[in-house]
Amino acid sequence: MNTPTESIMYEITPLSDKDCLYIADRQKSEFNYPIHRHTEYELNFTEHTLGARRIVGDSIEEVGDYDLVLITGKELEHTWEQYHCKNHNIREITIQFSPDLFLSGLSGKNQFTPIEKMLEKAQKGIAFHLPAIMKVYPMLDTLAKESDGFYAFTKFMNILYELSRTEDCHTLSTSSFSQMGAQSDSRRVQKVKEYIHAHFTEELSLHFLSDMVGMTPVSFSRFFKQRTGKNLSDYITDIRLGHAARLLVDSSSYIADVCYQCGFNNLSNFNRIFKKKKMCSPKEFRENYRKNKKLI
């Protein structure tokens, strides 16, 4: 069964025509951002993530303590899930850049051929193995702290070049297009998950969702937990919190507006759940996150 691309969230990144890179270096307690896609290229690094699950197209892999992935397929959906990861001190460095970055004057030049070949290969996603990750780790570790935008850009180019020279990597998806149907979830669970992703701003009841797939509430609740590892209510909450976190970071909306836009119907309840899950208030989350991201 193929999932329609409309059920995969389309992410609008903060990059403008004047920017080379968007860099976000943050600490997080868990993975909860929904599966998504975007037109920008992305290099994503995670640390302290043993047991987490990475989904890129039709590739589903459990990752180790370190994970580094390059994605250049604009229709290629991806996400990281908490899965078996017990660590709640996760570091994630996300670098997004426009496909046009290498088209004006650099394309076809001998010195950039290895990088161009790697970017082409990464349309299906590339995961780098530990030796390659450790080679570029010192540069990744300090990239967001680089105060001079030009030096940050040249450091990023060095990272790409070193990665383009390694064979310590493997291709992820069998296609650069959406392949959600390849996931192992049952059709019934997948149908409910699709509905939740499309209607998370609305009231969602166990009775309504179980009736959608022809099961009793008790049976479906047990079935959903077995298939996803989460209670239905926790799954819905995580989807809503993932969207709320993105709005807090990438918009100037009032926190109350974010609350209601993401399906929470009570501001006090939203603040309480957010603090329990994120270990900080929505206001603190927004302030801390913005300290660790930059446009170059």
Tell me what the structure shows.
The chain has 2 domains: 167 residues, Jelly Rolls (Sandwich); 103 residues, Orthogonal Bundle (Arc Repressor Mutant, subunit A), CATH 1.10.10. Helices cover 40% and strands 18% of the residues. It is built from 10 helices and 12 strands. Strands 11-10-7-4-9-2-12 form a 7-stranded antiparallel β-sheet. The longest helix has 19 residues. The protein is globular and about 65 Å long. The N and C termini lie far apart (41 Å).
Radius of gyration: 20 Å
CATH architecture of the largest domain: Sandwich
Mean pLDDT: 86
Look at the structure and give the CATH class of the largest domain.
Mainly Beta
Strand order of the largest sheet: 11-10-7-4-9-2-12
The tally of helices reads 10
Distance between the termini: 41 Å
Helix content, binned percent: 25-40%
Number of folding domains? 2
Strand coverage percent: 15-25%
Order of helices and strands: EEEEEEEEEHEHHEHHHHHHHE
Tally of strands: 12
Q: What spatial form do the alpha-carbon principal axes imply?
A: globular
> What is the CATH topology descriptor of the largest domain?
Jelly Rolls
Helix/strand/pairing category: alpha+beta
CATH superfamily of the largest domain: Jelly Rolls
Topology, element by element:
Layout (H helix, E strand, L loop, with lengths): L8 E2 L10 E8 L7 E2 L3 E7 L5 E4 L2 E4 L3 E6 L6 E4 L8 E8 L15 H9 L4 E3 L1 H14 L5 H16 L4 E3 L15 H13 L6 H7 L4 H12 L3 H19 L4 H7 L5 H12 L3 H9 L2 E3 L1
Helix pairs in contact: 1-3, 2-3, 5-6
